[in-house]
Structures are given as C-alpha cells and as structure tokens.
Amino acid sequence: MKVLFVLYSDLLKRVDLQDKLEKELELVKKLIGPDSVYATITSEMKHFFDIFPDLVFIRNDKGTFIYGAYKGLRKLRGNAVLLIDGGVSLTKHKLAEFIRRGKKNILCTGLALIKLVDLDYIIRTMERYKDGDASLSHIMEEVKREYGIDYEMLQEV
After folding, report:
1. Is residue 99 very low, low, confident or very high in pLDDT (cuts 50, 70, 90)?
2. At what angle do helices 136-147 and 116-129 cross, to 10 degrees?
C-alpha cells in the first residue's frame, strides 16, 4: 500500500501546515513504512523539498485537491492507495481503522482507501472532473454508478 498526501493551494493559508505534516508523516511511517509515502504539492510549496527529504513529490499544477489526487493516483497505479487530504487531521486511531478495513474501498472525510483492482476506474472517472470542483464522494458515486464498484462510506472514525 502507498500513501498519498494531497496538498493544494488552499492549505497555504494554514500557519500550522508544516508542523501538522511532520506529525502525520511520522505516524504514517511508523504504521505503513517510510518507503511508501508520496505527496502532491503546488509550485508555492517547493520549500517542502528541503523540509521533507524522504517524501516523493508529485506536481499539483492546478493547485486543487481533485487535480492533485488525480495526478498522484496516476503516478501510483499498480498499488492500493491510502489518499489523505492534507487539510484534515490524521490520528493513529483513524489510520489504524482504515488499514484494518483494507478489504474494500473506504471513504471518510479527508481519507480514502482505494484498492488496486479499482484504481484505474477511479482514475478514469477523476479524469473527467480534474479541472472542476467535484468532491471525492461525488466521484466515488460516479464510479459506483458507471462501473458498479462499491465503497464503504464511514461517518467518522
């Protein structure tokens, strides 16, 4: 499983973004492993290269969440992916719960676990919305409607 932190332009307003990412990155490294962590960043976030040298960075040219998720998922084809919205707080409990339920696609506020076999269908659907402002839950509903791929929607973990 690979982990993708999606960072986008709206997060630049947060003063605690760097501290938050440092804590969450340590948590993810402990539970999943250090070689499996990726992040999409905008051009305004280039200073993260020096701060997080162990992250693999993917460009988010448009600066939106959906475009960053789309680019990251395309790069991580061939793996199950835990998608994390950089603006949502991640806890050890929430992360462990997602990993434990890893047999199906799961969606929760700011988090998504996408199985390898369904990844291409999700990417194909995201491609249509990458320039818009659709939400991830809307995209997953489209995937379910078009391809019959089901997912579990968690209220809050």
Report:
1. confident
2. 110
